[in-house]
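Collaboration report, partner site 2.

Our partner group contributed sequences for two proteins of shared interest, and the home lab folded both. The records are reproduced in the order in which they were received, starting with the first partner submission.
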Amino acid sequence: MRKLIIMVIATALSVSSYAQSDVDALRYSMLDFGGTARSLGSGNAYGALGGDMSVTSMNPAGLAIYRSSELTITPGLLSINSDATYYGQSTTDDRYHFQLNNVGLVFANVNDGKANATDGWVGGAFALTYNKVANYNNAVTYSGFNDGSSLLNTYADFLNSGGGTNPGDVFDKDPFGAGLAWETYLLNPLGTDSTQYYPLITDGNVQQTKVMQTDGGMGEFDISFAGNYGNRLYIGATIGIPHIRYVQSYTWKEEDINNEYNDFNSYSLVDVTETYGTGINAKFGLIYRLNDYLRLGGAVHTPTLFGMSDNYYSSMSSDLNSGDYSYDSPIGEYNYELVTPWRVIGSAAVTLKNIGFISAEYEFVDYSESFFNFNRTLDAGDLSYETTVNTNIDTKYGASSNIRLGAELMYDVFRFRAGYIMSATPFNDGIAAEGADLAKNTYTAGIGIKDKSYFIDLAFAHSNIKQYDIQYVYDNGSGVNDGAVINTSINNFLLSFGFRF
């Protein structure tokens, strides 16, 4: 069963940089809804509360709660620590990142004589906002001694399959992997058959190290409208324009630390991919105030249609007793489309005037509904690969339930907040290896000062997530090679400044 699970997820968290995979679809479908420090401090459970800039990305009906216009800006600091275990060896890595988490402007209006009305349109709001909804910054290093296999084994098997490969065709057959190993003398043809190849590393016994660095995130520009009917029903809509920037740089190195091989010391492979995408979606929401204490909310987010563009390249260098060699791949480009899933959100809040609130939110999203469209040129290869990747998405991922809880206590001009966010695993049962199911638990806290014309809020969130990475899959007869189990701890600090006018 372990072998089956690893084979299924082999391309999930470590894929060739020039091939879109189901992991890319998952990455761009999982959202955090960052927003303001006030929202984060209360676990982002603002769907039934409103009156905060972050609601444009969650439940735009909350804009109708505003009674005055507002300008808000929220810078943030991320602290990321990763602890990876690979073949029994542990390695840690750290990363810090400053970012703009939110900036926005809300224009609110209350109709004359309608401030306390119980029927008719009381007023409304229009907002232009930017919210950070996903963070891709990370740094991971893992290293261990593999006594059974090498990445070069998979390259040789690839070239030897299907009757073999002529030497003159090797680079063109795989210019981002096996072709680079061929050009740096890490693969050699058999003396008896030049279409068959063997690697310089035949039986493993090498120190393997991977350094992964990723940068970027997803930010969403929102255009939102909301209306207040009878101070009881609040409705709103958002047109969202998210933008993706994702840059990954992976370095894979294998070293002969025990002098097992005559003509091999080490080699390294570098894969770099830059992905950019712009999309469009819509969000619709409502809040109903049952009485002065209880509010119920609901929102629906349409799928996001992304236009995506990848630029990628690889390079390899070898250190052999016979010399040092290096070779670069061509620069690849690929344009495609991605559609992410629907989201449905239900929420409730209990509010006590001059005391505070308690709120809860439930979000449903089915990650298997993501899909790629590679059908730009009707190329048969593109269509075949599109079917394969979309089938993997449907097989590996499923419905997920996310829960957000929050509370705020008021004391004079001070606000004290706490929250909890449970983001469930996106995987179907039996898929995630070593318990690395990407489920995330987040604990939040915050404090603020609120005056009539301004407010200042500070929030802190701590998250833990467990991931699995496998560079390649090779069965040497006694089993599949191991991957790395990565425990990542994320600390997020937000500081919001707001002005009412």
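Second partner submission, folded after the first:
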Amino acid sequence: MLSLKAGGTGLNLTAADYVFVLDPWWNPASEAQAVDRAHRIGQLKSVFTYKFITRNTIEEKILILQQNKLKLAEDLINPEESFIKSLGKDDISMLFE
């Protein structure tokens, strides 16, 4: 077990079998990067990730925040239904003024 706040220290868990996320981070990308550190070059085993979330806790609220952030990112980046497709030349020029 390792806290997500230990990130940036260069620690890689190349022999991990399991990753337990006990303290989810508001930024889903940071959490994904922490989990990815358990599966690096040289890792020969499957890695299983588990999140422990208790109801009515700050961790549950963080999980909801993560889901909302992911949905927002999908809505903005989705190439099929993106509002970016509806932007015209004048709209884009206005962004750079």
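Feedback sent to the partner group on the second submission included the following. Helices lie at 28-36, 58-77, 89-95. The radius of gyration is 18 Å.
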